[in-house]
Specification:
Strand content: 25-35%
Distance between the termini: 21 Å
Mean pLDDT: 93
Number of domains: 2
Largest sheet: 9 strands, mixed
Low-confidence stretches: none
Number of helices: 12
Radius of gyration: 21 Å
Structural class: alpha+beta
Length: about 375
């Protein structure tokens, strides 16, 4: 199924001789950019990609994209290609890993066809802003992370064509533009495809295509990673609450923890996966909370599903235990709810069943770097 659904593309990319080093031009996806990081990225370069991907500046982004292309800040590849991608990173747990895959155009498919499957619920607002950005730029500015059941991409033995460092990660890209090599690489992709990260971007691209109805808008830029890739990691998405902490009902068994939050997470890791559980961190108090009865439903047994039942207010999210713990200790958060990350097999099981997890259930780390490749809607 791979070849009809996956295609090479003529990437639009930065000309470093004009725009400057790639390290100063790239950024994380907009949804994880804090106000402090935003300021740092804006100051890094007048051409940093954050100036294009801010969804509330869609008209300005469209003008900038056209201006940068006209001035040679952005240049177009002469030949269609796919790209090998390698991301070397240090996770929130301090461990170094390497994630490998392919970047290609991926045909947009409605979810009901079972070809591309979501695993997480989305919010209407972010989809709408990204749709406006697509209308203004007519370019796929950031890739969607997709998982497949084929073999992992092997390491490359040649120097990369593009390389950029962003905080604790380095992304490397190798151009593949020979027809036989493209077919061989894409032939290794086995579907269905699962959206790991970028649900709002995929949904916006699908809506844009339904508006336009053209072959040019029928594809999204995707980074395809095997579910068996050793560098594929899901980190938890802990909840930090500034509002009131709800009372836990009688179906949840609460055990005080004498140690710190790390001890709580260690105890949480020993709880059976058919019992949703979480660690509640409050000032001077750590508790392990576990649903007393086993749960059979694959969605309802997730830790985040138990938190959804609590109706938390004023919530922010972080994959970092330290950030969550510090927020409570500093007094600006009333509590933190620490959870286990779903496994890759849980993500696949739920997606294949046509189900979705609660929003912000997973944190596939690292987020794909924006600014290395763009894919205009013109081929």
């Amino acid at each position: 199924m791979a070849w009809p659904l996956l295609k090479p593309f003529r990437a639009l990319r930065y000309d470093v001789d004009t725009a400057g080093p790639l390290d100063q031009l790239v950024a994380p996806p907009y949804d994880v950019v804090s106000s402090e990081l935003m300021q740092r990225l804006v100051q890094a370069s007048p051409y940093n990609v954050i100036r294009l991907i801010r969804p509330y500046e869609y008209d300005v982004a469209g003008e900038r994209l056209r201006e940068w292309t006209a001035r040679g800040v952005l240049v177009r590849e002469q030949r269609q290609a796919i790209w090998r991608i390698e991301e070397e990173y240090v996770g929130p747990d301090g461990q170094g890993r390497v994630r490998r895959g392919l970047v290609a155009r991926v045909r947009l498919e409605p979810y009901e066809r079972g070809v591309v499957l979501p695993h997480e619920r989305i919010f209407a607002g972010p989809t709408e802003t990204r749709l406006r950005l697509l209308r203004a730029t007519r370019t796929k500015l950031s890739p969607v992370l997709l998982l497949h059941d084929g073999a992992p991409s092997p390491p490359m033995s040649t120097p990369p064509d593009l390389e950029a460092r962003l905080d604790d990660s380095v992304t490397r890209l190798w151009r593949i533009d020979e027809r036989a090599a493209i077919e061989a690489e894409l032939g290794s992709i086995a579907g269905p495809l699962f959206i790991a990260d970028g649900h709002h971007r995929y949904d916006a691209a699908l809506r844009f295509h339904l508006e336009e109805g053209s072959d040019e808008t029928a594809y999204v830029m995707g980074a395809l990673v095997s579910v068996a890739d050793p560098g594929l990691t899901i980190f938890p998405t802990h909840r930090v609450v500034t509002g009131p902490v709800p009372e836990l009902n009688g179906t949840i068994h609460v055990t005080p923890i004498d140690g710190g939050a790390a001890e709580g997470l260690a105890r949480l890791g020993s709880v059976s996966r058919d019992h949703p559980a979480f660690v509640l961190v409050r000032p001077g108090e750590i508790s392990l909370a576990e649903v007393a009865e086993p749960i059979a439903d694959p969605v309802e047994r997730l830790d985040v599903a138990a938190l959804d039942e609590l109706g938390l207010d004023s919530v922010s999210f972080t994959p970092s235990l330290q950030e969550a713990e510090d927020a409570v200790a500093a007094g600006w958060a009333s509590a933190a709810f620490l959870v286990r990350a779903p496994t890759v097999s849980q993500v696949e099981e739920i997606a294949r069943a046509g189900r979705t997890m609660p929003a912000k259930s997973t944190y596939f780390y690292p987020k794909l770097t924006s600014g290395l490749l763009f894919s205009p809607f013109d081929e």
